[in-house]
Amino acid sequence: MRPTLCALFLLLSIALPAQGQPSYVTWTFSAAQQEGQVYLLTFTADIEPGWYLYAQEIDEGGPIPTTIAFDEHSGLESFGSILEEGEAVSGFDEMFQMDIKKFKRKVVFTQEVTLKPGTRSLTGYVEYMTCNDEMCLPPREMAFAFSFEKG
């Protein structure tokens, strides 16, 4: 019994710190109907002071870029490029030893999508990584769900 408890405690002590990592980014999501089946999806990241969120385009060997992915493409007839707008900081990053584009304070990602008729919802996730000037947190995924009244 005692070896089992020790093993369980060891497993929990390893797993809990990863689960208990603080988050320095708060996400909000919204959808606005443009016309007919066309919607503008907005993914907003509010970033705590001193922390950064990385752009979508990062060279290999750098931090994990921000990626927006849909769980099912079956509800999408078409989708446009994801645009990013915010207070960008571009230049040489000492931690990664390369030029990097990252955002501080707030960044808004937008994407125009056309839904297939009858689509009532879209789900997916944003994968992102945050760092400050001294350390990086492990990449995270934040789930999102959009609901549409008219399909």
From TrEMBL:
Give a Pfam family name: DsbD_N
Highest taxon of the lineage:
Bacteria
Q: In the UniProt record, does the keyword Signal occur?
A: yes
Q: What UniProt keywords apply to this chain's record, in alphabetical order?
A: Signal
- Every copy of the Thiol:disulfide interchange protein DsbD N-terminal domain together lies at 27-144
What is the annotated signal peptide range for this record? 1-20
> Is Lyase given among the entry's keywords?
no
Protein name, entry field: Thiol:disulfide interchange protein DsbD N-terminal domain-containing protein
**Which source organism?**
Phaeodactylibacter luteus
